[in-house]
Amino acid sequence: MKMELFVADADGKNAKQITNFGCASFAPTFTPDGKQLLFASNNQECDSSKFELFLIDIDGKGLLQVTNYGGFTSFPEFSPDGCKLAFVSDWKASARYEFNIFTADWKP
Prior knowledge:
Elements (H helix, E strand, L loop, with lengths): L5 E2 L8 E2 L7 E6 L5 E6 L10 E6 L6 E2 L7 E6 L5 E6 L10 E6 L3
Antiparallel strand pairs: 1-2, 3-4, 4-5, 5-6, 7-8, 8-9
């Protein structure tokens, strides 16, 4: 499945494509300062289930890989105060389709 990320005004106008990997990028969330998106993508191995978290500026520049677990990692969310990040991953899972929930300090 091919999915790219876009940002737009609340009314859908001024849409701008942020990613163009030809892979699956999904589950985006804005960073607490609103200047970047944190999202999951399999852009290093398209059509696989190997998803990692990536950070990108809302202008589509400055791509940075955040995780490197080699499996499925996705669904990032920030705490209301912006100091913690929660996400799911099959890292250290003991069975197929088992997912663990992780939290981490977020320091931009």
